[in-house]
Write a structure and sequence with these properties.
Layout (H helix, E strand, L loop, with lengths): L1 E2 H8 L3 H9 L7 E2 L6 E3 L4 H12 L4 H10 L3 H39 L8 E5 L2 E12 L3 H18 L9 E4 L7 E10 L11 E5 L2 E10 L5 H13 L2 E3 L3 E9 L2 E15 L1
Antiparallel strand pairs: 1-3, 2-3, 4-9, 5-7, 5-8, 6-7, 6-11, 9-12, 10-12, 11-12
């Protein structure tokens, strides 16, 4: 039998690690002295410890290693688990490569503008939601409030008449590209808590979950278009493409005062 300190030196593993492997029932000593509490190991446990260390080096968690050792894996099962682990590592590498690309794009932006970016862009997945929607065509961009405002009121009025509740801030879904300023196709959307029957003017459907690049504009709504410009520039610089109607989520908009607003701009994207 080999004392724990000697076993640690032979295997080049710390005593603390061996004690932890004992606690989690991954590698138990062959004997524990009843009086001193010293742990003793056998030389024939070294191959098992080496297997644990080799699997750990491949990225397997101790919990998974414990299951692999306990089940007595066949060669085919081990091959399958290694292929799964390879896929997970490849995914992490791809995620880190994307993060590196975003860092490089931010550095290029700082070098070009020589100032802190006004807008920070995040890529996230927005959940699906039930919505009541009033779709309108806006003749010219300067008429957006005259058309979108009544559309929101109509959607809200119908939701409340049916005894339903809105579940979050309203949003506009723009089916026309951001650089179109005439005959804009838009929906005034109210998230709702339960399905309702559609009418000729107010539609009901589930807005699907989607991945978006998002930026938040806070301040005077007159400067709102700067958020769009920054977001579109970021999408292009980071190798994404727009894959659907963009959204404007009106988080804070006080009636009659557009000097202090908060709006999140969301563009559905995928890697180009």
């Amino acid at each position: 039998m080999i004392k724990i300190g000697d076993f640690a030196r032979l295997s080049q593993v710390s005593v603390v690690t061996l004690r932890y492997y004992d606690e989690v029932d991954l590698l138990k000593p062959v004997k524990v002295d009843d009086f001193t509490g010293y742990r003793f190991y056998a030389a024939d446990q070294l191959p098992l410890l080496n297997r644990i260390l080799a699997l750990k080096d491949l990225g397997f968690s101790l919990e998974r290693i414990k299951l692999m050792l306990a089940d007595g894996l066949t060669l085919e099962q081990l091959r399958g688990m290694l292929m799964m682990q390879r896929h997970e590592v490849e995914k992490r590498l791809a995620d880190e490569q994307e993060r590196l690309s975003r860092i490089e794009a931010r550095l290029r932006q700082i070098e070009l503008e020589d100032k802190m970016p006004t807008y920070d862009v995040v890529v996230k997945t927005v959940p699906a939601m039930l919505v009541a929607a009033r779709r309108v065509t806006i003749p010219t961009n300067d008429q957006v409030p005259q058309y979108l405002g009544p559309a929101f009121r109509e959607a809200y009025d119908y939701v409340r008449q049916q005894g339903a509740k809105d579940t979050g801030p309203c949003l506009a879904l723009w089916h026309s590209p951001a650089d179109v300023y005439e005959n804009e196709d838009a929906e005034a959307i109210v998230p709702i808590d339960r399905p309702l029957k559609a009418t000729e003017r107010v539609n009901m459907y589930e807005l699907p979950s989607t991945q978006v690049a998002a930026a938040v504009h806070h301040g005077d709504f007159q400067d709102f278009t700067q958020g769009h410009a920054a977001l579109l520039e970021w999408i292009d610089a980071n190798g994404y493409r727009i894959v659907g109607p963009y959204r404007e989520v009106y988080i804070k908009h006080e009636k009659g005062d557009l000097s202090d607003t908060t709006t999140e701009i969301q563009y559905p994207v995928e890697k180009a």
